Amino acid sequence: MCATNTNFVRRFEESAAEDCDVIVTNQNLYVEDDADGWIVKVSSGVFTNHIGDVLITDSGYWDFVPALYIVHWNPATQSFVTTRISSPYINESIEQSTFAPINTPPVSP
To answer: Each residue of 24-49: pLDDT tens digit?
Structure first.
């Protein structure tokens, strides 16, 4: 999918893309905050309108700005549309992320 659209490839070749997942129904996302040792939960509600889209995890190693990007293919414009998700609980760098059919209780850093 990435190779067919140079705008998408160019956007992510300068990032520290760490992981790539397809967004699934009713599953929370769990992300490892590498700097602080936390596992951060992102509620499935954040992804309700993005089922089937791709989630890119940018570790933040190059610019110390970790982020999650939802990537959606827009057939009308023949281009990818990216939406950045940020979290106040992720500070310097993140590693892997995964969707899981579990629900952990909230924990504050």
So the answer is: 999 999 888 777 777 888 889 989 99
